[in-house]
Amino acid sequence: MEFWVLPVCRIIFTLMLMLTSSTFQGVASQTQSTYFLPEFALSPQGSFLEDTTGEQYLTYRYDDQSSRSTRSDEDRDTGWDAWGMWSDCSRTCGGGASYSLRRCLNGGNCEGKNIRYRTCSNTDCPPESGDFRAQQCSAHNDIKYQGQTYEWIPVTYDPISPCALRCQTRGKSLVVELAPKVLDGTRCKADSLDMCISGICQEVGCDRQLGSNAKEDNCGICAGNGSTCRLVRGQVLPHISPEESMKTVIEVPMGSRGLRITAKGPDVIVIEAHAPNSKGEEVVFSSSGSQTLGNNTVEYQRAVDRQTLRCHGPLSADFTIKVKYAGPKDTVIQFIFYQPIRYQWRETDFFPCSVTCGGGYQLNSADCVDIRYNKVVAEHLCHSYPENTKPKPKLKECNMDPCLESDGFKEVMPYDHFQPLPRWEQNPWTSCSVSCGGGTQERSVVCVEEDVHGQIVQVEDWKCAHSSLPISKQSCNTFECPKWMAMEWSQCTVTCGPGLRYRVVLCVDHRGQHTGGCNTHLKPHIKEDCLVPIACHKPRENQPVEAKLPWLKQAQELEETKVALEDPTFIPGPWSACSVSCGLGMQRRQVKCKVLLSFTQSEVELPDGECEEEKPPLQRACDLGPCSPDSPWWPLGLQDIPEQHGYVWEYMGFSPCSASCAVGKQLAVVRCVSTSKKEIVDDTLCNGSKAALSLLRICNPQPCPARWEVSLWNPCSLSCGVGLQTRSVSCVRLVAGNHTEPASSKDCVDTRPPELQACNQVTCPPSWEAEEWQQCSHSCGRGTQWRKVYCKQRLATGSYSRLRDEECAGIKPAAHRTCTNSDCRLPRLEGGEWSKCSVTCGKGVQRREPVCRRQTPSGQLVTLDRSACSEYPLPPLIRSCRMPPCSKHKYSKKRCPQVIGLKRIYIQTIQEKLLSFTIGGRAYLLPKTSILIKCPVHHFPKAQIRWEKDGSDLKSSKRLSITKSGALRIYNLKAVDIGIYRCWANQDSDTFILKLIGYNNRLLEHPEGQGLEKKKSGNVHPYLNKEGGYVGVKCPEQRQISLEKKVPKSVPSWVQKNKFYRDDVSQPKQLWDTLALGNYPLASGARGRTGFYVLEPAQFEELVRNISQLAESGDVSDEMASQLIGKLMEDLAATEEGASTMDNHLDRMPNSSQLSGGKAMKKGSRAVIIRQKHNGYAMSFQRDLRINVGRTAYLTNATHSLTLICSTQGVPPPALSWSKDGVPLQNTERVSWDSGGEVHISRPGARDMGIYRCTATNELGSDSEMTQVLLAEPPTIAVSQSNTSDLNSTIMNVVVGGVVSARLGANITLQCPVKGVPQPTVSWHRKEGPLNANTCPLLDGSLLLRNLTLQDYGTYSCVAANNIGKSVASSLLRVSGGTVGESEHQPSKEMYRRRVLMASLIGTSIAVKPGDMLRIGCPVVPSHRKPITWSYQNQTLKQSPGVRYRMLVGGRVLEMNSHGGKFSGRYECQTQTNNQRLTAWVHVRSKESEWRLGEWSTCNASCGNGGIQMRKVRCLTTDGQEMPSSVCRHLPKPISQPRACNLLDCPPSWVSTVWSKCSSSCGRGFRERRVSCQQVEAAGSVRVLPTSACKETPRPEDREECTSHTCVEWLTGPWGKCTGRCLGPAMATQSRTVSCRHFSNSTSKTCDPKERPLSVRNCSSKMCDVHWKVLPWRMCTVACGSGFQSRRVECVHRQNKKTLPDQHCAWQRRPVTWQHCNITSCSSECKDRTRYCIVVKSLKLCLVDLYRQRCCQTCSQDISAT
Questions:
Q1: Which residues face 286 on adjacent strands?
Q2: Measured between alpha carbons, how far is residue 1734 from residues 724, 1581, 1737, 1756 in Å?
Q3: Are 213 and 193 in contact (CB under 8 A)?
Q4: How does DSSP classify residue 1703?
Q5: 3-class secondary structure for 846-901?
Q6: 1407 pairs with which residues across the strands?
Q7: I need a labelling partner for 1226 at 20 to 30 A (CA). Which of 663, 791, 1034, 1608 fits?
């Protein structure tokens, strides 16, 4: 446990738990806390910091004068007293702080600090002591906070206030600052040595010293240079297998640091730790987390395909890194660590002094030490490390005391009598004979002796025989030479045919670092040719996987069950026929080592040594049954074998079983045995013709364990751009007969092999891609179909990249075509209108008449004679109808039908499938949304509700239906659905207005335009009969109500509102989502739905107010808010006031009928540009920006394209032209415009800024409009970097920034110069609260403060903002003058944090600057309650005129106002303590300061006219003491003007010009310069003198030799043979060497690359006279259905007809080698033959013959349905 040892602190710590902190009084009046007093936190004694004015914190302690040390001379000169003793350490361990104090003896004008700190107790604390900061938090556990106690734990590192005691309640989120400062010595953060002292985080180096920036190097040495360790890094690819399941990767020695291991692959990392004198440990890393191994913490992280292991070290044991097998895929291991140099030099202690008195010397040396075992070893071990440098011997004086006079001589140490002994002297080692690989170096060793005169001479070697002869030859540079290291080959650069593959080759030294010095002639090649055995052609079509299975299954049946895998495997061939026709014979086969290349899906043969498994047998016995007795192969039994010469064949058991499961075989072992000795003898002694019969028996018949069996990968689904390959994976077990049977997947314990993999991950060539044809423009007759055609490229990642049309080869597919729909013109028999139900209640019937109709080319329906449709079947002509029950629905005349509508507005913002609404409102919806409009009614049957749209009856259709409850359902909204819907309940009705939001938030218009108006005028109300009465139940109360009251007199046309935007096109789409930022009625009325907003008309005013609030808070720009409010008001007014009112609010654009049918247009009209109404500028962060001409466009980083729209009208149609900055606009790759008047700019930037003008011209006139394009910039404020102080002026103009000091009553203008695009808006804020009434913002962004008062003190901030960003600048305003009582403002906390000056019994003198806070304390205990009397200048304060003051903490503290008036003088406090009178006083002096000019500096020149002198400006007090510049910063600083000096004629001197260029451009030449004797006069002029005037100084050379660049030239070698790559018929390439060389034939790199001759050219080659030879097609694999057939395609020479490798013909396209065949059904029955037919139909693949045959039934249904 850690203890705090300050004696006073123990007492204070006990008291502090009883104190109440005022810090928490603002939170709760009953809050309690702990307060650490300043003395406890190592603050200087004799004063204290007053954070508050609470009386319970006022304390005092006198200085201990007896503890001071001797005063130094330097302290006497500076006025300081001697430093006091160091205080006790604030901590007993873990690093604390101690302080020392000193006093200023010259009245407080001493320069420097009166306190100093140092670290102490730097030993580590025991683990059980806990964290020091946690101890301080736990000290508050028993103190109530807000009425209850908590268990406090420290908060993690806070970068803003690291030295505040911030604690958190355990298990809760409450965080409180329990003390403003932690105890001295507390770490700023857990992982750093920096500590808090007096509430400030002080930097502590690794040497545990304050202010030190010493850091540990990579070797762990504090302030080291990294020479005691070396970096080890590398990469290993361990090839492990199930047979060799574990391998060692690398051994990391003990003491290593910074270990990091990265593994890419499935294998498992295993670490063994071997520490000295302890047992080994082993850890297998399988899951992420931390492990403890050998007293080291190892962090392990595991991802999907990567493992990372880290250990900071130093390692306390030797680590052996191993890899354990976990899968067939190889694992790549990368490692890096810093390994300590085992053998290092360590300095020895100094040898004994050479004399005992009179002054001698001592030397030390250096030993080579094995740091692992801490013992001295031979020096050559340290020399083997180049990083090691042996320290030089150090020499120091010793025994400097004079010898006694009686001695008469110096006594020399026993080992060196009278004079030093002869010694061996070694010369330095010679350079090593080699730079690496082990060499030798030598040195000379001689015996020398020092005589009495100190001269060293060489003597005979025998005189040094008392010491061993140093070695004169040693080995050196034993480390390995740098060598080439080749990495793995990359994949082939192509997916088919010939290509290249590359690898990285590095020169690596013995430390594994990249270096130079390798032999360039031995460097392995970095690229080589590769051949992918796949034909370079595009498949005819991509067939589904099941289409290729029949062919694949047939191929598998012909092969062996064992196939090549990605690991080398022995693949046996088929067995040959048995060698005999009966009996036992032999069968033979070939067994080859093969591997499957996954990238090309081809098998390659390898040498047998590449396959690690045991090679299968090449032959086996075969038994064809016993032979007949007459056969020569009839075997003899053992009993038939006669004994020959005493030797006989005998059976000796059986051989081992050939298989461990699934039926193996055993052969009987037959040996030749001597009948007499019963010993085995040589087989030749037995009669070979009568050998014993070979016996064979079955063994191990049980099935083998289950295993995974995989098939070959199917062909890739795509030839490029990431395709997919599939294969079948099944769990099987091997049984007898070399057959397999299926097993459960649970029986296979190994990891299931993948069934799917990516393939052909290469980029496809660009190709055309066309979308589906759109619907024909006419539903009947001849029309046009359109589609979009793009040039796209499928990348290797599977994504598509859209390219320009020029990058696609071939002709671009057509984008439009004609279409004809003639079926619509045939007659068809339809049913007419249904009659009314035959009954008014209950169940009845409805009837209708058949009608024969035909549609004309114009789309109109024409009724024909019934005979034209005689061949068509009749539609249903009668149906039942159900009316309300007669007993329940007898309506009285008083209960009239009523439609209950809701007047609400719906705004959809998110795409949803289905929305539900109620009649009576209006909705702005997104296309493709399905809606349900309910029609609630009272006193009316819902089944009789009728619907109409735009005045016409609604009928059920494919997308529109009326439910049984009378609701209207519309599926998949389209533009034709725009309109006014009305539901009728007898005479009562209500409407629902539906609008659609299109591209860029534009409201879509109805496709029929104003034709709707004409259609509406001719409609007859559905409830009026021929006589004008109502059909159905009559309501007397509503008979007098005219129909016109129910229906609006004028319904606004949708075309008239085609320019109404939900939002302007240039605004971001998220604007409407901004409405949901607050809890407004807009969001609350949404009924819980997030896809749209719902408003009631009563809420509209609230919505407008909320949008205004959003604009004020900055969430929505002013322009956005104004546009949003305006558009909503206009749209709502359209329904209430009619179309005529809309014209007053919105810009109208003439529709097509007005343009063509108006009289003015017929006569002609001049060209006019349609100007859209707008407010402000178009600021948007949309990716694609569209701006109407006449507006200003601002480009941002988010703008990818800009479109300028210029809409015109006029007859004849105007011609458009564009210009930029007065110059006609040119079409470029980025800038273009179309006939519609739109200018498109892609990737706009600063170069596109300017004024764009659109001009429309026709025969009757012209019109023009311009748009300015600007680059948006964030606001910037030109902040002043200086402080301003003017206490005399009454008017001040100051730029914001710095501190501003002004007098009372002055008028100040704070200027805020701001720049930005768009022009930023400027607002002013005050940190201390709202702006006072005397402040006035000006139009130019400045702030005027009139008639300053003390309440105007504070920090004023200027905020400049636009749509891009905002900028803030602040100034602190100080007001001088006034009394303390007049000040009502609250200064900042810094003004209150002032030290209280304690009065002393013996008197104290202090100097105070005017304006500083002055508080004087009376030295009494806090519990003192007797009255205290204060006096000033020997008079009571009340009797002292002009003195401004106030009393604090019960009169124990006197606060004086030093802003104005007098405050200098003697202050005295008097009171009674312990029946004694206490008098203490302090003398306060005004500490004035001013700027003064110092002495002139030394002249910077000795002669001529260039010498100047300057005077330093210093801040001095009235008594001449220099102060820091910050003391005088409020005063105007004078400018030091330079003056000329040493205006004398300079002595003559030589002056040289610069050297000329070398006379030769290459090789040797000369260069020259001019040298003259000159003199600089006092006036500054230069006079040229004769050379004799400078004869006293040597004359510089004016000519010298020079050497320019060595002459170089391009040299070419002879052309090589024409054997390069074939480029065409009989055309190849040949090459030659081209090198840049000096005239000395050495290579160079300075030749001009532009003049380099060609190194490759085309040539004629007979080897390239080749062509593809195509052989006939083979038989189809099936007789019916879908099969395949293949053929051979060979590359053949045209002359010699020889077959060559395919790469010789790669320059021409290879013919296809397979195709589909017999695509016919095997039976006449039309049915589906695959389970994917539903997918085929949904993908519209029935048009392809293959899919139509296989999905006959599904595709036939598709055709019949159409």
A1: none
A2: 21, 102, 5, 12
A3: no
A4: G
A5: EECCEEEEEECCCCCEEEECHHHHCCCCCCCCEEEEECCCCCCCCCCCCCCCEECC
A6: 1485
A7: 791
- 933: pLDDT confidence band, cut at 50, 70 and 90? very high
Q: How many CB atoms lie within 10 A of CB 1420?
A: 21
**In three state form, how does the secondary structure of 1260-1299 look?**
CEEEEEEEEEEECEEEEECCCCCCEEECCCCEEEEECCCE
In degrees and rounded to multiples of 5, residue 790 shows phi and psi of -120, 155
Give pairs for 1728-1734: CB < 8 Å, separation 24+: 1728/1752, 1728/1753, 1728/1754, 1729/1681, 1730/544, 1730/546, 1732/544, 1732/546
Residue whose entry in the numeric block shows the structure tokens 């392990």 = 300
Neighbouring C-beta atoms of residue 196, cutoff 10 Å? 23
H helix intervals, 491-639: 549-558
Largest Cα–Cα distance of the chain, in whole Å?
A: 162
The residue written with tokens 């191990």 in the block is 700
Q: Which residues contact 295 (CB under 8 A, 6 or more apart)?
A: 275, 316, 317
Per DSSP, the three-state class of 750 is coil
Dihedral-angle region of residue 1591 (phi above 0 means left; psi in -120 to 50 means alpha; beta otherwise): alpha
Do residues 192 and 157 make contact, with C-beta atoms less than 8 angstroms apart? no
Report the C-alpha gap between 187 and 203 in whole angstroms: 10
| CA nearest to 224, candidates 248, 239, 207, 203 | 207
CA distance 370 to 1223: 83
Positive or negative: CA dihedral 1486, 1487, 1491, 1493: positive
Q: Taking Cα atoms as reference points, which of 1179, 1187, 1190 lies closest to residue 1272?
A: 1179
What digits encode the pLDDT tens for the residues 350-398? 877 877 887 776 777 788 998 888 888 888 888 877 777 888 777 777 8
Rounded distance between C-alpha atoms, residue 21 and residue 56, angstroms? 9
Contact assessment for residue 1674 and residue 1680, using Cβ atoms and an 8 Å cutoff: no
Q: Residues 1394-1447: pLDDT tens digits? A: 568 888 888 888 877 776 778 899 988 888 888 899 898 888 877 666 677 888
User: What backbone phi and psi angles, to 5 degrees, belong to 997?
Assistant: -100, 120
Residue found under tokens 């891609």: 769
Angle at 867 between CA 863 and CA 873, to 5 degrees: 90
- The Cα 435–Cα 518 span in angstroms is 12
Q: How far apart are CA 1657 and CA 119, in angstroms?
A: 78
Residue whose token pair is 């006093």? 103
Strands lying side by side in the sheet with 229-236: 229-236, 332-340, 257-264, 307-311, 296-302, 289-293
> CA–CA distance from 1591 to each of 39, 97, 870, 1547, 1572 (Å)?
77, 70, 136, 12, 12
Q: Taking the complete model, does pTM exceed 0.85, yes or no?
A: no
